[in-house]
Amino acid sequence: MEPTNPLELKRPAGLQGRVYLQAIVDAFVKLNPRWMVRNPVMFVTEVGSILTTVLWIQALLGHGEAPIAFVGGVTLWLWLCVLFANFSEALAEGRGKAQAAALRRTRREHRRKS
Q1: Where does the chain have alpha helices with state H?
Q2: How confident is the model at residue 5 (pLDDT cuts 50, 70, 90)?
Q3: Is residue 43 within 8 Å of 17, Cβ to Cβ?
Q4: For labeling, which of 31, 52, 60, 71 is most exposed (least CB within 10 Å)?
C-alpha cells in the first residue's frame, strides 16, 4: 500500500545518519559569536562558557580562587548546554531541509505521472 500523504513517506535509511552527522558539524560551526548573537540567551551562555574556561585554566595554573573541580564542572556544563542547543537547532534545520527535499521530489514525481 502506497502512502497518500507525502509526510508519511519513509526516509531512506542513509539519510537519517547523514542528518545527524551534519548536525554535529553544524553544532560546532554555530559556536561562531556572529551566529550565536541571533539567540541572546545562548550567546550569554557561550560568553559565560568562555569566561569560566579562562577561570578554569587559571585554576589549573595555580592562580585561581575557586577549586579546580568546581570551576571545571561549571565550565563543562555550560559548554554542554551550548553544544546541545546548537545540535538540536541544527538537527531541526536538517530534518526540515530533508523533508522539504522529499516533498519537492514527490511533487516532481507526481507531475511526471500526470
Answers
A1: 13-29, 33-36, 40-60, 68-113
A2: low
A3: no
A4: 60
CB contact at 8 A, 95 and 102:
no
pLDDT digits (tens, 9 = 90+) for 16-70: 788 889 889 999 998 998 888 988 999 999 999 999 999 999 999 998 888 999 9
Query: Is residue 98 within 8 Å of 11, Cβ to Cβ?
Result: yes
Instruction: Give the single-character DSSP code of 30.
Output: T
Tell me the C-alpha distance between 88 and 111, whole Å.
35
**How many residues are recorded in the chain?**
114
**At residue 35, what is the residue type?**
W
What are the angstrom distances between the C-alpha of 13 and each of 41, 84, 102?
35, 24, 14
